[in-house]
Amino acid sequence: MTSITCIDDLRELARRRVPRAFFDYADRGSYSEETLRANREDLLRLKLRQRVLVDVSDRDLSTSIIGEPASLPFSLAPIGLCGMQHGDGEILSARAAQAAGIPFALSTMSICSIEDVAAAVDKPFWFQLYVMRDRGFVRALIERAIAAKCSALVLTLDLQVLGQRHADVKNGMTVPPEIRVKNVLDIMTKPGWAISVLRGKRKNFGNLAGHVKGMESVNSLAHWIAGQFDPSLSWKDVDWIRSLWPGKLILKGILDVEDARVAAKCGASALVVSNHGGRQLDGAPSTISALPKVVDAVGSEIEVMFDGGIRSGQDVLRALALGARSCMIGRAYIYGLGALGEAGVAKAIDIIRRELDVTMALTGTRRLADIGKHLVLDEAR
Ligand SMILES: Cc1cc2nc3c(=O)[nH]c(=O)nc-3n(C[C@H](O)[C@H](O)[C@H](O)COP(=O)(O)O)c2cc1C
Questions:
Q1: CA of 368 to the centre of ligand 1 (A)
Q2: Hey, what's the torsion of the CAs at 229, 119, 23, 42, to 10 degrees?
Q3: SS3 call for 313
């Protein structure tokens, strides 16, 4: 573990330990991956101001996220199929988040179910919802999230139709999943992964299997899911969700100011500036370039979160400097999960925490509330 010093190290270890099809599923983006790359490149373009001789002892990284106390200004983003990066991946990630004092968001498309995760952690977690055509099923999912005492519902808005990831098609990560000789051979070279997944509670979509009639196999469920994304989804459905979900609501997948203005009027606690980690609309702007416009338009009305491309504490500081109240990290923790299971997620969180702490010190900042645009050099903005 001592040789792991940054998120890239975790990525490299995950690349060696996780079968190619599942590693690529996590790592890659849609179509030409223009937006995936832009998320990183535009973050790195923001240069930070080095300040000296400011008393930066007693730094404080704690905050609150939608009113919940958090030890760090970021949460773990909802990620489908965590349990295919490492057996019981959702439970392990939720535990690591809980131990670090930050929120964990469970995806609709998880391997472990809402109930599995609720039984494995003591603190409430967030549940991410995809609105499916089968609204009865959506209602039931919301009721299950209420019964599991989830503290927020993250409603994802940017996946009404699926962007194509070329790597997934080439690797057979399709509907139905293709069993290819090369994948079987690849799995044979990853025994640690195979044991962890075989020992895991489930090998299917935990929130769906057993809850959709007649869809028991992975194949039939994958077909059902593919037909369930709903292109007719509209803001009216958000009102409907609101009427069913009494708790805090987070609207995820806002990139445009016009949408942000509507989102701010929906009675949600927060919105997430997100382009699904460059996995949906290829050609869309990077999230960091969209963030300041959204913050200017609605930052005084609704809590603005940010995700896309965060691989370091420096990146978290960049996003906070441009007005995000908190961030979500996606791949950064998924690499940790694939590399080392729960310890790897904990490591990813710790790496980003330490980097953020040092970056605050070197920019002359003691508190998160003191982070602002003044920390980013003008010419870089
Ligand atoms: C492998 C993978 C699966 C994802 N699955 C979901 C999902 O089920 N629901 C969702 O709202 N977002 C999902 N996302 C998007 C993330 O929540 C988040 O927006 C994105 O990962 C942020 O970008 P980053 O990975 O560069 O940090 C997924 C992202 C990845 C990489």
A1: 25
A2: 70
A3: helix
| pLDDT, mean of residues 286-309 | 98
Residue 149 Cα distances to 114, 115, 117, 142, angstroms: 10, 10, 11, 11
pTM: 0.97
pLDDT tens string 328-366 = 999 999 999 999 999 999 999 999 999 999 999 999 999
What span, in angstroms and rounded, lies between the C-alpha atoms of 323 and 306? 9
Rounded distance, CA 266 to CA 244, Å?
Answer: 14
Any idea which residues carry the catalytic annotation? 276
How many angstroms separate the alpha carbon of residue 255 from the centre of ligand 1?
15
Q: Ligand 1 pocket test: which of 23, 27, 79 has the largest number of ligand atoms within 8 Å of its C-beta? A: 79
In this structure, is the dihedral angle defined by the CA atoms of residues 203, 206, 210 and 213, taken in order, positive or negative? negative
pLDDT tens figures, 104-139: 999 999 999 999 999 999 999 999 999 999 999 999
3-class secondary structure, 71 = coil
Question: Given this model, what pLDDT does residue 13 score?
Answer: 98
Separation between Cα atoms, residue 148 and residue 229, nearest integer Å: 24
As to burial, measured by CB atoms within 10 angstroms (0-12 exposed, 13-18 middle, 19+ buried), residue 267 is: exposed
Tens of pLDDT, residues 257-290: 999 999 999 999 999 999 999 999 999 999 999 9
DSSP state of 217: S
- Which residues in 42-69 are b (16+ Cβ under 10 Å) and which e? bbeebebeeeeeeebeeeebebebbebe
- Region 3-20: mean pLDDT is 97
